[in-house]
From TrEMBL:
Coiled coil regions in record: none
GO biological processes: amino acid catabolic process; carbohydrate catabolic process
Organism of this sequence: Edaphobacter modestus
Name assigned to this protein: D-mannonate dehydratase
Domain (Mandelate racemase/muconate lactonizing enzyme C-terminal): residue spans on this chain: 129-257
Signal peptide residues on this chain, from the entry's feature table: none
Length: 402
């Protein structure tokens, strides 16, 4: 089999997506997600100008070789743009291989290790009562694990809380929106939030919380310790992770489990965190971390240290990535949990897929390959439009981590 063509499909069915389609001389094609939220066209150009011409004529079954060719062959290593581009190619090749062999991708990764992948939903509310309402609504829908975010009293905007009654969606069209942030008010409020939620929903539901990189290590240590009575499943991205050593300090002060890595793009971003057991869950995803090929190696390394996966799964990761994550999560032994932020009905229509949700778990389905399609005609009705993630400032105007 030979790769005969590779092209990108850019569309915006309620949000922007960049999708790679790789075609072969046997008529089988594969899809890969190349979406890097807020910086989409950089990946599109990297693929179109530098990567796709090198694919033509290659054997799509040689997935490892093509990965190494693109990673080592560029000479310039790592970085979100490069690694998202490599991911898109890698995932499209796994899709082709599954289709060619007539089997779901999870079978190529070792086969089923479990019946389904435990997923967590997002509950959020502008204030405490509405956050609790949202948690209850998700329990009614069958979720067993729920991330809780809430407007912090006395602040104008909080991470993870939508404006009005629209669902939370991180990117907005136009120039970046700016939000204001107060660490002091946040740290005082969050323990009350989880105390109230636990009281209302009992001990059994898994509760998660995303700090979104906003604290210093010692502040994160204080938060983790103050949340211990409510036994969270995890505290996510408690501090920025460029300095992996920062997690040592948090770890030394709290037994609240820690997840990080959604902005990582290489095994090396996670290496010290894993081998020192400073984290419990690694969130680096297939789309931004170099594809299934790279994540399999990272997950296997993490398994040795009893670190489990908890992949990023926000709406800016397309249904192609969601499917890939579910095949991956069904197969590997050290799967922990998968984020599930459902796409809008329109996005789901543009990307028909075989994955399903039932009673707290998701399943990738039994279709050969990834089990995701793209309706190109429908996609063409929703052209790409520039959008940005917000910028956060402290109350005195200093730019901080969003
Ligand atoms: C999450 C994330 C997202 C990100 C978004 C950025 O845990 O789901 O933090 O909401 O902010 O994916 O593009
Ligand atoms: Mg997050």
């Amino acid at each position: 089999m030979k790769i005969t063509a590779a092209r990108l499909i850019l569309c915006s069915p309620d949000r922007n997506f960049v999708t790679l389609r790789v075609e072969t001389d046997e008529g089988i094609y594969g899809l890969g997600d190349a979406t890097l939220n807020g910086r989409e066209l950089a990946v599109a150009a990297y693929l179109e100008e530098h990567v796709l011409p090198c694919l033509i004529g290659r054997d799509p079954f040689a997935i490892e070789d093509i990965w190494q060719y693109l990673y080592r062959g560029a000479y310039w290593r790592r970085g979100p743009v490069t690694m998202t581009a490599i991911s898109a190619v890698d995932v499209a090749l796994w899709d082709i291989k599954g289709k060619a062999l007539g089997t779901p991708v999870y079978n190529l990764l070792g086969g089923k290790s479990r019946q389904g992948a435990l997923v967590y939903a997002h509950a959020n509310g502008a204030d405490l009562p509405s956050a609790i309402e949202s948690v209850k609504k998700h329990i009614d829908e069958g979720y067993l694990a729920i991330r809780v975010q809430c407007g912090v009293p006395g602040t104008l905007s909080s991470y993870g809380v939508p404006k009005g009654d629209k669902p939370y969606e991180p990117a907005e069209r136009g120039l970046p929106a700016e939000s204001l942030w107060s660490t002091e008010k946040y740290l005082n409020f969050v323990p009350h939030l989880f105390e109230a939620v636990r009281k209302e929903v009992g001990e059994d539901i898994h509760l998660l919380h995303d700090v979104h990189h906003r604290l210093t290590p010692i502040e994160a240590a204080r938060l983790g310790r103050s949340l211990e009575p409510y036994h969270l499943f995890w505290m996510e991205d408690p501090t920025p992770a460029e300095n992996q050593d920062a997690f040592r300090l948090i770890r030394e002060h709290t037994v609240t489990p820690i997840a990080t890595g959604e902005v990582f793009n290489s095994f090396w971003d996670a290496h010290d965190l894993i081998r020192n057991q400073w984290i419990d869950y690694i969130r680096m995803t297939i789309v931004h971390g170099g594809g299934i090929t790279a994540l399999k190696k990272t997950a296997d390394f993490a398994a040795i240290y009893q670190v489990r996966t908890g992949f990023h799964g926000a709406t800016d990761l397309s249904p192609v990535t969601m499917a890939a994550a579910l095949h991956f999560g069904l197969a590997i032994h050290n799967f922990g949990i998968q984020e599930h932020m459902p796409h809008t009905p329109l996005t789901d229509q543009v990307f028909p897929h075989s994955y399903t949700f039932e009673a707290g778990y998701m399943h990738p389905g039994e279709a050969p390959g990834l089990g995701v399609e793209i309706d190109e005609k429908l996609a063409a009705q929703f052209p790409y439009a520039r959008a940005y993630l917000p910028i956060a400032r402290k109350l005195d105007g200093t730019v901080t981590d969003w």
